[in-house]
Amino acid sequence: MKADVNDCPRKRSGLVKKFSSVILPALVAAAPAFAAGEPAPLVLAERGICPEYAIVIPSNASASVSYAAAELKRYVRRLTDAELPIVTDEADLPPKAIILGNTRHTAGISGLCRPALGEEGFRITARPPHLLVEGSSVRGVLFGVYELLERFGGVGWYASWMTDVPELDSFAVPGDFSDSQRPAFDYRNLYFGDATGGDFAAHLRVNGDSNHLLDRHGRNSRHRFVRGLGACHTLPSLMPHQEFFDTHPEYFAMVDGKRIPDGQLCLTNPDVIRILTERVLERIADDPVAPYYGVSCADTLKWCECPRCVAAYNATESLSGPLIALVNHIAHEVDLKHSGKTIETLAYRHTRKPPKNIRVRPNVLICFCTFFCDFKDPLRTGANAMSRRTLSDLEGWSALTGNIMVWDYMGNYMHNLMPHPDALAYQDNLRLYRDAGAKKIIDLGVSRTSDFAPLKAWLLSKLLWNPDEDVPALLDRFFAGYFGKAAPLVRRYFDELYLLPRDTEAMPLTFYEDIDEGNLTDEFLSRAIATLSEAEKAVEDDPPRASNVRLAKLSPVFTLLLRRARLNTPAPAEGPLSNKALLAFFRRSLEEFEPVSIADRSINREDDKAAIFSLDRAEREGLVGR
């Protein structure tokens, strides 16, 4: 995606002042007075004054702790122009120090019982005249530094192309400040937009395989799946039909009385169970460091109907019955030879219903896939029948095991650019998953050019860390930092989109919604485009944020054009809402935000572009726009 600038500083007299109640609630740097009896704030850096503080790290600091120190130094310089030195604990403790990690000085200064912080938790403590950022050398210290910069510096990492950095007179922390945090979920795989890039993913504090963390981010080997196999639909890779079907058709699904190569495996066949067990053990031998090994069904609804499989379905009242029996067997054999390894499988589509009369072994991880439900309303309160089944299935798995990972779906896979108002359900759903015992979350979104993708990725990252965050305050903060002076107008469109009435049973918000489904009308889309065009004018002197507004505008423009093309709805002949004007904007957007994803890669949607561009020919021939 092309962008005008990578980082976007704010002047003290501008947005910082205007939005201080929203994005800098804890900032004390601008308030030199403090209540009687309260300790004076620790002024870590001041503009135009030689800094008194130094950043102290261990002499044997990990790559992540060293990077945390470099990040703190870089952003303090951008906040205040002050240059904080970085020193190791080999030297004497400076008179005023920001101490990162477990230095030789830390224990003596902390004087507190250290909480259990894990790999990613942190504690920030003011011990005047020093400030301590404690945490693991994996990511704890790094995430503590990011909390410090966000909370007291007002830094906002809203997109890979939009870092919002205010210009401050001073950067300070309350003299009695102390805060400890740990993430609600230990695995937070945010496969959404630009969260797949390591630096930005670290700023969002996510840690999944899809987030491509590097050494400086602490990587993420503790949650890695085996190389070459992954977590999804792995049985066809373990037992490919090209290798087995010709000689052993009985290994494969019987459908309508005939064995077929492109269905599921026959999961009750003893030889299939034996071969799969052997091959998983071979994978472990090839990649013994990986902690997770996926054993999950093919992405097909062609299930085996042989008498043995049907009996297993009936005995457990679910298609998941023979699958769980299989993974239990594999997990048992793996545990005998490789203690500490986990076998993961999918509760997906027809295996999402939990089985009865069977338990789940402790070293089996159930990956629960939300799949078909109404994504607009929270699962706990939504009235849609699919959502109620999803909730019931999750509760059923929660009763069988405490080892659950949730694979949640965000966005419209059929039309990535369509408005998709699901963000206000994120918080309650994540609370539900936490309460159900899930420790791992995969949020599978769509492209970075999809409907409000930067906002959704950022909001999800905050809620994956802490599902009890104040969502209205988070939304205010994002809109102010990302859209600047255009925030009120873009927020008007956002609020109207989420308030559109919708029959949750007749028109659930699925992740495969087509252009003529749902509750979007040409009138609403036209009004949205007009509002966002006004918003763009509000920031015409701020190129990065003007680009952000145009990206938000791309969604209703695409949707209106495709509706006009597919449904032959009318368009004005002239003006900003004419096909000619909207086509010109769409073409410019394809260049400005390249690559623009139209649909999920499994769907060929070049015909959507062709349909939209056909409006140009129709305009010239006088077929539309009258």
List keywords for this structure.
single chain, 626 residues, alpha/beta, six-stranded mixed β-sheet, six-stranded parallel β-sheet, 19 strands, flat, disordered C terminus
Provide a brief overview of the structure.
This protein has 626 residues and is of the alpha/beta class. The protein has helices spanning 12-18, 20-23, 63-80, 106-110, 140-153, 198-203, 235-238, 241-244, 270-286, 307-316, 320-337, 385-400, 426-435, 453-465, 471-483, 487-499, 522-538, 543-567, 579-592, 606-620, and strands at residues 7-10, 42-46, 54-57, 86-88, 97-100, 122-127, 130-135, 156-159, 162-166, 170-173, 178-181, 187-191, 254-255, 258-259, 292-294, 342-347, 364-369, 404-409, 438-444.
Q: What report would you give on this structure?
A:
The chain contains 20 helices and 19 strands. With 626 residues, it is of the alpha/beta class. The chain is 39% helix and 14% strand. A 6-stranded mixed β-sheet has the order 4-3-5-7-6-11. Strands 12-19-18-17-16-15 form a 6-stranded parallel β-sheet. Strands 1-9-8 form a 3-stranded mixed β-sheet, sandwiched between helices.
